[in-house]
């Protein structure tokens, strides 16, 4: 059984109020990536989030059932809101669990309500597992 | 005294049975001694592939390793051996630390390969280049490049002298993943028991042993040659498994095999 916990880091300087963290990085990964796609049978469990930014900044975790099409349809499965400028750390006792049943699903990290030209950063701890619990 | 220690390696004076599906037979060893007792962990490091190395993809094309020891998204390696790390220059085979000479017939490497990140697919081919994982009576060849025929993050095998094994690794995520290898291994000094009654007891599971199935579904000529040179075996390339009521036949056959053994 596989259990792999890794941290995804992302920063952006938005030009509009919404957008994606398109240049995500991780110490476990070479290069950058804009979404995470796992093999079928796996789950992504989001255990913790850290947000840094201006008041109103919201981190949104988006999920699609098919990332292979030219314009995937994304829907929000979780979000976290920064009420005031500064940083926020959220650690879940029960994680957000995202299933990968076909191997073409993906998750991406997005922002909304961001102040234009402000700096926002996130760290998200994701466990990749094929276990049921 | 349990057969294995907390690392899953066979304790001294315990038995190891290596079963081969291809022949329905097994090799049986007594672990006389463990050379590396107390220092079984070997942090090998990154997978021995260089930046730019050619990798197969699950789409049927090829791609390049984005960095040393790194698997590109949706890619898998060919057969990999593990060259020596610094200070291991005197190993028998400069391209494979687990490859023992046929003259080291009293040695076995029991190797547990831990792969990080554990989502990485891994399989082993014995000998290198020969696919042993198959589906439905051999109709379908499986392995790291297929939908099944591999494990993730871990594989265990026993290296027999004279045979080069090939490990393959696969990454079916969209991330470029550096792959780290940790071995937990036992270097055993072994002998094959000379008592056919004991061998029968081990193979009917009445005597305790550590039982490991080698992924040998085809008795490749390379394996036959090694078994002949290392152990003095011929067909059925080990001790065939018999039912309890076939004990007399088994003892007769085992007695004949034991006469020709080199270990």
Structural features:
heterodimer; A: 133 residues; mainly beta; Jelly Rolls; four-stranded antiparallel sheet; B: 263 residues; 2 domains; eight-stranded mixed sheet; six-stranded antiparallel sheet; 3 helices; 18 strands; 12% helix; globular
In percent, how helical is the residue content of chain A? under 10%
Distance between the termini of chain B: 25 Å
**What is the molecular shape of chain A?**
globular
Count of DSSP strands of chain A: 8
SSE series of chain B: EEEEEEEEEEEEEEEEHEHEH
Pairing-aware structural class of the strands and helices of chain A? mainly beta
In total, the number of domains of chain B comes to: 2
Chain pair sharing the greatest interface: A-B, 20 and 16 residues
Total count of helical runs of at least 4 residues of chain B: 3
Spatial strand arrangement across the major sheet of chain A: 1-8-3-6
Please give the largest β-sheet of chain A.
4 strands, antiparallel
How many structurally independent domains of chain A? 1
**Taking Cα atoms only, what radius of gyration of chain B do you get, to the nearest Å?**
19 Å
Q: Would you identify the regions of chain A where 5 or more consecutive residues have pLDDT less than 50?
A: none
Biggest pleated sheet of chain B: 8 strands, mixed
- Assess the beta-strand content of chain B as a share of residues: 25-35%
The helical percent of chain B reads: 10-25%
What is the overall number of helices of chain A?
0
Structure description:
The complex is a heterodimer of chains A (133) and B (263). Chain A has 133 residues and is mostly beta strands. Chain A has strands at 3-12, 19-20, 42-53, 58-64, 75-81, 86-100, 106-112, 120-129. In chain A, strands 1-8-3-6 form a 4-stranded antiparallel sheet, with no helix packed on it. With 263 residues, chain B is mainly beta. Chain B has 2 domains: 15-33 and 190-259, no CATH class; 41-188, no CATH class. Chain B contains 3 helices and 18 strands. In chain B, the strands form 4 sheets. In chain B, strands 1, 2, 3, 8, 13, 16, 17 and 18 form an 8-stranded mixed sheet that branches. A 6-stranded antiparallel sheet of chain B has the order 5-4-7-14-9-12, with no helix packed on it. A two-stranded antiparallel ribbon of chain B has the order 6-15. In chain B, helix 1 packs across helix 3. Chain B starts with 14 loop residues before the first strand and ends with a helix. The A-B interface holds A 2-4, 6, 26, 28-31, 33, 35-39, 42, 103, 106, 128, 130 and B 66-67, 70, 116-119, 152-153, 172-178.
